[in-house]
Amino acid sequence: MKVMKKSHACVRLEKDGQILVLDPGVFSEADAAVGANAILITHEHPDHFDEERLRAALEANPAAEIWTLRSVAEQVSAAFPGRVHTVGHGDTFTAAGFDVQVHGEWHAEIHPDVPPMTNVGYLIDGGKVFHPGDALTVPNHVVETLMLPVMPPWGKIAEVIDYVREVKPQRAFDIHDALVTDLARPIYDSTLAALVGAEHLRLVSGESTAL
To answer: Residue 122, SS3?
Structure first.
């Protein structure tokens, strides 16, 4: 499997000539999902879900499909009839040749005064990759590679560290990092590398690695 980081929370996975894209949002490149055979969306916040990017991908590949939770599916199913699948915690399915398990139900708390919203995470190929979206969901499964929301506005670095320690992945790649300035990155890199208990890695947008 090849993993390519796109800007912010978007990740592209490639295996056997098939491409699976997760969370192409407004902070991601305009063509972040173009070429995808399947797209997974964790929740409805625009930095994870952007209809223009979905439209570009589905127009480029008429066979491409979307899997997402109900709150997003209700917004896009009419625009893409027959190509949007609604999923929730506990569901399993195959998308673009990848085996996917759905974990979690709720977005991390932003503030007690902000109404809660739904969020799902996706465990890919039996734990090869886990993308939690905007949550600190701990799947009841071994995780090899954790896509780590390193600087969400709802979190702090202590929570990020404890999350990695609880999941216990072999490695953690930064996502949700558009808000991290270049000045701050060395602080995050050194702190996480010292404390998370797993290999901490960062890919720049467009960079890829093999798992």
So the answer is: strand
pLDDT in tens, 162-177: 999 999 999 999 999 9
Residues 6+ apart with CB under 8 A from 199: 170, 171, 172
Residue for token pair 């990740």: 11
* H or E element at residue 4: strand 2-5
Q: Residues 27-49: pLDDT tens digits? A: 999 999 999 999 999 999 999 99
Per-position DSSP letters for 12-33, written without gaps between them: EEEETTEEEEE---TTS-TTTT
DSSP states of 148-201 as a string? EE-S-TT--HHHHHHHHHHH--SEEEEES-TT--TTTHHHHHHHHHHHSSSEEE
